[in-house]
Amino acid sequence: MDFAPIAFFAYNRPHHALNALNNLSRCDLAAESDLHIFCDGAKTAKDSKQVKEVQDLVRSEKWCGQVTVVSHDKNIGLANSIISGVSSLIERSGRVIVIEDDLLVSPFFLTYMNEALARYEKIEQVMQISGYMFDLDLSSDTDAIFLPFISSWGWATWKRAWLKFDPYMEAYHILSRNKQLRDEFNLYGSYDYFRMLKMQKKERIDSWAIRWYLSVFMEKGLALYPAKTLVKNVGWDGSGMHCGTNWDEDKIDEEFKVIAYPVDIEISCLYEKVRNHLKQRAGRLLKIKNVFNVLKKTTR
């Protein structure tokens, strides 16, 4: 099998980058995979030292079979970094696996990604392979399921799908005028993704992921998810973009492998269970955020 290139994105967190790269290097197939590390330039003078540490760090070891480092002189932002990095590798190789510097992955993460990319390569409706799954018990006949929304925590895609990416959100006005579509986009009240879309439209956030989700949604695309997570996000320490306080419920079962794949290309019957879990989790995160904001105000 010709393994997909890995795109790894880093900025100014040397400790996170070191942990993530060490973890990735221990994956099955790491030694046979090409790794492309994209380092964004410093946004402020304050960030310069840590950015330099990251750029030196990523060149210090041979994390995978072959390593290429792309360092930007100027800061282009996380969203632009991911969009340009993914686009360049997609154009060259036709597919890509994407990891950010605050993600730890299962030893079988790369095996799953490459097998799923090969298995569903020609299935137009399948637009993403996701490595993350919420912390809930899924009783399924297969080790992976299809869901109608994407995850940004460890994922992969193909050129045929990425060509549908709409970075300018041209479909935004369709959703803004259609409540039924907005409800579907928000997973029927499970998470307010449309609010994120509005914030992106007003340039209050800079998210490639909400734009990618909109693109997949408008194509009625599906993402493949493992029944148990193969990815853990350890960036909930306030050190990264869009990160708040620590959230440590997700655990990787290092014995879990995706062996049985779904044959039918359709939304899993477990979709409602996943939606209900996401709704409860979003509520708990909001409470934690509100308490955190109150504490910040009272300690100023």
Précis, in short:
By secondary structure, the chain is α/β, with parallel strands linked by helices.
**Structure class:** alpha/beta
Could you spell the SSE succession in H and E letters?
EHEHEHEEHEEEHHHHHEEH
Beta content: 15-25%
Q: What is the oligomeric state here?
A: single chain
Uncertain stretches = 240-247, 287-300
Total domain units: 1
Q: Please identify, by name, the CATH architecture.
A: Alpha-Beta Complex
Query: So how many helices?
Result: 10
Helix content: 25-40%
**Which CATH class is shown?**
Alpha Beta
> What Rg do the Cα atoms give?
19 Å
Physical arrangement of strands within the biggest beta sheet = 3-2-1-4-8-6-9-7
Average pLDDT reading: 91
Shape: globular
What's the total number of strands?
Answer: 10
- Biggest beta-sheet profile: 8 strands, mixed
How far is the first residue's CA from the last residue's CA?
57 Å
Spell out the blueprint of helices and strands.
Layout: E1 6-10, H1 14-25, E2 34-39, H2 48-58, E3 66-71, H3 78-93, E4 95-100, E5 103-105, H4 109-119, E6 126-130, E7 144-147, E8 155-158, H5 159-162, H6 172-176, H7 179-185, H8 193-201, H9 208-218, E9 222-226, E10 231-233, H10 271-298
Parallel strand pairs: 1-2, 1-4, 2-3, 6-9
Antiparallel strand pairs: 4-8, 5-10, 6-8, 7-9
Helix pairs in contact: 1-2
Description of the structure:
This protein is α/β, with parallel strands linked by helices and 300 residues long. The protein has a single domain, classed as Spore Coat Polysaccharide Biosynthesis Protein SpsA, Chain A, CATH 3.90.550. It is built from 10 helices and 10 strands. β2, α2 and β3 (66-71) form a beta-alpha-beta unit. α1 runs parallel beside α2. It is globular and about 50 Å long. Residues 240-247 and 287-300 have low confidence and may be disordered.
